[in-house]
Design brief:
The protein is α/β, with parallel strands linked by helices and 101 residues long. The chain has a single domain, classed as Rossmann fold (3-Layer(aba) Sandwich). 46% of the residues lie in helices and 16% in strands. Strand 2, helix 2 and strand 3 form a beta-alpha-beta unit. The chain is globular and about 40 Å long. It starts with a strand and ends with a helix. Keywords: ATP-binding, Helicase, Hydrolase, Nucleotide-binding. This is Putative ATP-dependent RNA helicase DDX17. One of its GO terms (molecular function) is nucleic acid binding. It holds the Pfam family DEAD.
Length: 101
């Protein structure tokens, strides 16, 4: 499982965050491995990234729960949790998913 988990409320925000992580991840040695998982796209490449192992997962709550329930990943190593735009996530009704994660 990842060391850091970033939970944004939307796919668009997840992709923006991934862009920043990618830019900074290339600067580290060894390079920070990361993936961005969200609904509305194929699970196959996302699952492949998880199988290879990543230090950072950027994920929307629903798709992350899918992968956790299917045991594609776990949060046993997760030390850092970022709830990006937490107020917006709560306003959008994500509280049950956040609690489940």
């Amino acid at each position: 499982g990842p060391i850091a988990l970033v939970l944004p409320p939307t796919r668009e925000l997840a992709q923006q965050i991934q862009s920043v992580v990618r830019d900074y991840g290339h600067l580290s040695k060894p390079e920070i491995r990361h993936t961005c998982i969200f609904g509305g796209s194929s699970k196959v490449p996302q699952a492949r990234d998880l199988e290879r192992g990543v230090e950072v997962i950027i994920a929307t709550p629903g798709r992350l729960i899918d992968f956790l329930e299917n045991r594609n990943t776990n949060l046993q190593r997760c030390t850092y949790l970022v709830l990006d735009e937490a107020d917006r996530m709560l306003d959008m009704g994500f509280e049950p998913q956040i609690r489940k994660i």
